[in-house]
């Protein structure tokens, strides 16, 4: 395992490969965006968290401010309503003088009612200046003894403010020297000479309780300051952090900012109440916000890690798939070569491309060198008719590929030499290849010197063919010019070889499709040197079409096979006679006759095999090879007699015997069907359908096999069954007729026709006997 990892490590990191570059780029393209998205998500979530907390703090401060403002407003309104009541609206001085006890009793009752109606109020007190007496709902009545306090209260009465709120301790009254808010009003309102002062005190515990209900974070602090910046109350101590008010004043336009207190960073959120211009400041530790952001960061980190792992795997897998065609290409091009660690696949492919380009250039040069040979092979195949099945478009493509012009006059001539041991020659009998090579060179030189175009072809039988193509000329001048060229060529070759040389010359045609025919003309012409003599140019004389173009009688062979398949001996022998007559067209070519009968023999043996006959039994045991027997026969008449005796008679006999067996089986099947169903309305068509034969053919075969017709057999069977029923049962004639498949009237008529008596007479006679 360790060695595998080391090899993988070296192959990936120490060798410079295109795959490594692709993986690195893919991982970089995968990791960087994921990290950017991860960090961006974290920063965005942290910022969003702070923004959300700030908005939440603003809502909290607004709620705190709203709760406090509504409480103060309600207490103030209730105090004003009390002072506008009947008691405080009356002449308090006269009431006190006339009913001293009732005055203080009513005053205490009104203040107690006010305090009871406002649970937030810690104390309600009334100061009567002429007596220096303070009536409190919480402390009871007592006198103000301090001249300083009386002087301060007098100044309060003489001030222009009818009502006001005082924040912080109010030292002029006993018990009011604690933090809180005090409402002060002259009594009665708007009087020129007030009878006293009304004090309503709210303890700071009320404000702290409201603020603490909205505290959400550990270490969160909330401060309430009046319009002058004095601390009313807070949840974070009795002193406002130094520099906080200045910072709030400076950054009043910003929604949130941070402030450090005792080494701890806080996010500051301030608002100002529109009711009394009090400032509400909320301080949330940044680390508490970071705690939630850390959770988001952890989730983000996990997601980023998962995305990185998945992205890396997908990148590696995708890169591997993309790289696989390159790897396959490199492995195919590599061919056992190795590339150094300083070169990746692209560099290796570039180097191999240059090498392959060089090799391709060499191969192209070799192809150009071999092109004449390839062109010669193509021409040979064309002469032999290998491309006759090609369409004109396909043939044009082949001609252009091998630089063979179309639309020109074409002429073929075949050059043959004859070795004569009695005459001195330049070459020996074993020098056939050398002779052909020399002849081709002489022809090529002569074509060049006469500026003629053509293809020289080695026919692989010690003969050379030349395919000439030239511009169309008049028939006379064109033929004579070509023949003169060939005469000169023949003379040059004969003089060089010291051998008799014969050239067979074809006719002319401007159609490429006629080239195989021209070649056949040239071959036939050079063969005729045996009759007209060698060492000359023999031009095609345009002999009978049958001599040059013998056609195998395929239709006769097909008819002969069909006759054998149905066992028609007479027709098969007639087809043999027709085949023999068609051979007369090739009587001058015994090899064609022999080949044709070989083919006919093959067709007969194939037919016997398909029919299931044993071909070994069809032929004479002594003649295991029928093709050898054909070669021994010298006349067509003897060939036909041999075919009739050895093939036609055995095959047709086998077919007829096989057909007879099949017919017997079918007829026996029909007989069994008739015997089982004679009591139904049977017909010949019904039975023919069961056998899969035509009614006419079934009737003919039934008659041939049973020696009676179908109707006669059915009638006799029914009459025999009826006789048996008349003898062995007491059934009525009608019932007997129904059981054998007749109507009563027809039954009586048919029964009398076959027996000479009616059914009733037959039964009576039978009983009498």
From TrEMBL:
Domain HTH araC/xylS-type: 668-765
One Pfam family this sequence matches: HTH_18
SUPFAM superfamilies, per the entry: Homeodomain-like
Gene3D superfamilies per UniProt: Homeodomain-like
Keyword line: DNA-binding, Membrane, Transcription, Transcription regulation, Transmembrane, Transmembrane helix
Positions of transmembrane segments: 21-44, 295-317
PANTHER family referenced in this protein's UniProt entry, alphabetically: ARAC-FAMILY TRANSCRIPTIONAL REGULATOR, REGULATORY PROTEIN POCR
Listed name of the protein: AraC family transcriptional regulator
Species annotation: Paenibacillus planticolens
Taxon lineage: Bacteria, Bacillati, Bacillota, Bacilli, Bacillales
């Amino acid at each position: 395992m360790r060695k595998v990892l080391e090899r993988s490590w070296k192959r990936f990191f120490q060798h410079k490969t295109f795959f490594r570059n692709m993986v690195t780029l893919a991982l970089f393209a995968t990791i960087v965006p994921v990290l950017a998205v991860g960090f961006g998500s974290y920063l965005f979530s942290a910022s969003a968290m702070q923004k959300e907390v700030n908005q939440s703090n603003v809502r909290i401060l607004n709620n705190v401010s709203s709760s406090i403002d509504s409480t103060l407003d309600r207490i103030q309104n209730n105090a004003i309503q009390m002072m506008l009541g009947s008691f405080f609206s009356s002449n308090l001085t006269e009431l006190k003088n006339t009913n001293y006890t009732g005055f203080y009793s009513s005053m205490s009752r009104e203040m107690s009612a006010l305090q009871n109606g406002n649970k937030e109020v810690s104390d309600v007190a009334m100061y009567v200046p002429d007596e220096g007496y303070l009536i409190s709902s919480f402390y009871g009545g007592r006198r103000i003894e301090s001249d300083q306090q009386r002087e301060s209260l007098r100044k309060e009465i003489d001030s222009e403010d009818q009502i006001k709120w005082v924040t912080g301790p109010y030292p002029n009254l006993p018990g009011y020297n604690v933090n809180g808010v005090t409402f002060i009003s002259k009594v009665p309102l708007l009087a020129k000479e007030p009878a006293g002062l009304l004090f309503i005190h709210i303890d700071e515990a009320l404000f702290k309780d409201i603020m603490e209900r909205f505290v959400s974070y550990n270490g969160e602090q909330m401060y309430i300051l009046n319009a002058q910046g004095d601390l009313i109350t807070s949840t974070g101590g009795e002193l406002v952090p130094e520099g906080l008010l200045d910072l709030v004043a400076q950054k009043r336009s910003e929604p949130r900012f941070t402030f450090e207190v005792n080494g701890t960073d806080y996010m500051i959120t301030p608002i100002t109440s529109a009711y009394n211009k009090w400032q509400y400041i909320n301080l949330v530790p940044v680390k508490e916000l970071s705690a939630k952001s850390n959770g988001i960061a952890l989730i983000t980190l996990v997601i980023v890690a998962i995305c990185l792992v998945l992205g890396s795997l997908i990148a590696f897998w995708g890169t591997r798939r993309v790289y696989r065609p390159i790897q396959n290409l490199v492995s195919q091009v590599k061919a056992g070569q190795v590339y150094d660690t300083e070169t990746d696949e692209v560099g290796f492919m570039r180097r191999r491309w240059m090498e392959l380009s060089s090799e391709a250039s060499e191969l192209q040069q070799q192809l150009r060198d071999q092109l004449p040979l390839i062109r010669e092979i193509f021409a040979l195949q064309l002469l032999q008719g290998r491309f006759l099945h090609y369409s004109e478009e396909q043939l044009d493509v082949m001609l252009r590929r091998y630089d063979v012009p179309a639309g020109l006059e074409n002429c073929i001539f075949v050059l043959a030499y004859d070795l004569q041991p009695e005459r001195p020659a330049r070459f020996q009998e074993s020098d056939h290849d050398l002779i052909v090579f020399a002849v081709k060179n002489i022809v090529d030189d002569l074509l060049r010197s006469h500026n003629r175009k053509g293809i020289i072809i080695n026919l692989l039988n010690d003969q050379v063919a030349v395919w000439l193509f030239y511009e169309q000329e008049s028939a006379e001048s064109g033929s004579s010019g070509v023949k003169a060229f060939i005469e000169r060529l023949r003379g040059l070759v004969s003089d060089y070889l010291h051998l008799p040389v014969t050239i067979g010359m074809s006719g002319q045609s401007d159609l490429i499709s006629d080239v195989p025919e021209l070649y056949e003309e040239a071959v036939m012409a050079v063969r005729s040197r045996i009759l007209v003599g060698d060492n000359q140019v023999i031009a095609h004389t345009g002999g009978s079409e049958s001599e040059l173009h013998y056609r195998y009688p395929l239709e006769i062979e097909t008819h002969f096979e069909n006759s054998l398949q149905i066992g028609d001996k007479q027709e098969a022998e007639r087809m043999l006679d027709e085949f023999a007559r068609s051979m007369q067209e090739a009587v001058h070519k015994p090899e064609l006759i022999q080949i044709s009968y070989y083919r006919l023999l093959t067709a007969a043996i194939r037919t016997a095999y398909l029919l299931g006959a044993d071909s070994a039994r069809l032929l004479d045991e002594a003649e295991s090879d029928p093709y050898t027997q054909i070669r021994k026969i010298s006349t067509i008449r003897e060939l036909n007699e041999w075919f009739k005796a050895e093939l036609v008679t055995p095959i047709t006999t086998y077919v007829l015997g096989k057909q007879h067996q099949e017919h017997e089986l079918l007829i026996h099947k029909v007989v069994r069907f008739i015997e089982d169903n004679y009591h139904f309305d049977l017909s010949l068509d019904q039975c023919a359908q069961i056998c899969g034969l035509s009614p006419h053919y079934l009737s003919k075969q039934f008659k041939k096999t049973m020696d009676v017709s179908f109707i006669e057999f059915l009638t006799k069977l029914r009459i025999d069954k009826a006789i048996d029923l008349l003898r062995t049962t007491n059934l009525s004639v009608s019932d007997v007729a129904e059981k054998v498949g007749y109507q009563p009237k027809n039954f009586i008529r048919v029964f009398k026709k076959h027996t000479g008596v009616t059914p009733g007479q037959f039964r009576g006679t039978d009983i009498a006997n």
